[in-house]
Amino acid sequence: MIGNGNLCRALVKANACLASENNERVTIFNYQVPSKQLLNRLLDQLSQPATWTNTDACQECGKNFSITVRTHHCRHCGRALCSKCSDQEVPIVKFGENKPVRVCRVCFDVLKTGAS
Predict the structure, then answer these.
(1) Which of 101, 99, 43, 102 lies closest to 70 in space, CA to CA?
(2) Angle at which helices 37-45 and 5-13 pack, to 10 degrees?
(3) Fewest CB atoms within 10 A around its CB: which of 64, 68, 71, 106?
(4) In the CATH hierarchy, which top-level class contains the domain 5-113?
């Protein structure tokens, strides 16, 4: 990801889904980088709800979805998550969501405190 900040920001402006996975199931959320500042800034710049991802496992903890483990989506970044990994709620005023909606922990922190 080093040196790709401008590319990432351009993709966000073009409404690319940050939760998209490559062939190894790597996303910007689980890519190993020294700092999560770029991710936080990109999430802060989202101007409309992301397209929901379709996957067979939680994109945070890796737990497989099943009849007993339901799929939930972060209303901010669009990641597919289990209930444990999407247990936060916050209004997303920039999307016109004035009532609290389900978000992941990463987006919750960004929406509550901004991109630090």
Answers:
(1) 102
(2) 20
(3) 68
(4) alpha beta
